[in-house]
Amino acid sequence: MARERMSDLDYRGPVRRVMIAILVLVLGALFLLWRIDSPRVERMRNALIDRVVPSMDWAMAPVTRLAGMIDSFQSYARIYEQNQELRRELQQMRAWKEAAVQLEQQNAKLLAQNQVRLDPKLTSVSGVVMADSGSPFRQSVLLNVGARDGIVDGWAAMDGLGLVGRISGVAENTSRLLLLTDASSRIPVTIQPSGQKAMLVGDNSAAPPLEFIEAPEQVRPDDRVISSGDGGVFPAGILVGTVVKTTDNRFRVRLAADYDRLDFVRVLRSHPAEQINEAGVLIPPPATAAPTLSFPDPAELTPAAGEAGDG
After folding, report:
1. Is residue 134 within 8 Å of 122, Cβ to Cβ?
2. Which of 158, 134, 130 minimizes the C-alpha distance to 146?
3. 176 has which bridge partners?
4. Which of 140, 156, 158, 151 lies closest to 174 in space, CA to CA?
């Protein structure tokens, strides 16, 4: 057994060396055959390719599959990079969209303020809302306009949609705007189209109630509420909001002003109404009695006649 194994080892070494030599010779011959530039050799190469290559598809399949996997992996890597870049661009676009929406809202408010129809005699001063009071019991905001801009305490203010409130406190460079929703706000209003007079009373809620309505049965939801101008506090005809009816059968006002995005306001210059200090010709003078004719008493005239006879 040992001799057979030794003999096998003795034959395997020379056979391997012979096979390797033959393979090297064949490869060298193929290399030389492929390098020869001759029409006959070209025909031989084409014939060899036609015979060998189609039958070697099974051997090339793993190589082809591996090459496809490498291409797929590279494509997946490129898609992943593109996806990450698209995510970053999407985040940037969302930020730009938010900024564009805010600018669009500000632009719409400014355009609405420019297009709102008011009494031609009324002029306004535009101001920017700097801060709010931050108190649940007092709802007001600070404006960047004050006495240097001609602001007077009591003037009405509105945004591009409706009435916001009135000036309650003026400094040199700032002023405080008391909102309609504040608990201390009281505004006389008119309900259209019925023409009912009422009082808009602030209660620190988004929809203040209507009080002292003359004829509540004539009021309907979605009726327009405008300032009446009574008392000379606000100019007449400024839109306040629309009527809504709550579950407790109370009438409230859905304010037209956008309090959630209150950035710019217009302070309306109100001119005080003329006051009549003298009665003038409005009150006629008191009626005077008709003049009477007086005659002398005859008894008083008799002595004068006697004296005339003695003379």
Report:
1. no
2. 130
3. 142
4. 151
CA distance 138 to 190: 25
Q: Distance between CA 225 and CA 207 in Å, rounded?
A: 12
d(CA 198, CA 228): 9
pLDDT tens digits for range 1-40? 555 555 555 667 777 888 888 888 888 877 777 677 777 7
Cβ–Cβ under 8 Å, residues 155 and 269: yes
Give the H/E segment covering residue 34.
Answer: helix 2-35
Query: What whole-number distance in Å separates Cα of residue 207 and Cα of residue 137?
Result: 15
Q: Which helix (H) or strand (E) holds 72?
A: helix 57-115
For 154-203, how does the pLDDT look when each residue is reduced to its tens digit (9 = 90+)?
899 988 788 999 998 899 999 999 999 998 899 999 998 888 999 999 99
Specify the DSSP element, H or E, that contains 126. strand 124-132
Please name the residue that has the structure tokens 């004829």: 215
Interatomic CA distance for residues 121 and 155, integer angstroms:
15
Is 153 in a helix, a strand, or coil? coil
* Helix H or strand E encompassing 298: helix 298-310
3-state secondary structure 207-246: CCEEECCCCHHHCCCCCEEEECCHHHCCCCCCEEEEEEEC
User: Taken in order 116, 122, 123, 126, is the CA torsion positive or negative?
Assistant: negative
Query: d(Cα 54, Cα 135) in Å, to the nearest integer?
Result: 88
Residues 21, 25, 26: CA angle, nearest 5 degrees? 115
Which residue in 182, 199, 187, 189 sits closest to 141, CA to CA?
182
Cα first-last separation, the chain: 215
Please tell me the pTM assigned to this model. Answer: 0.51
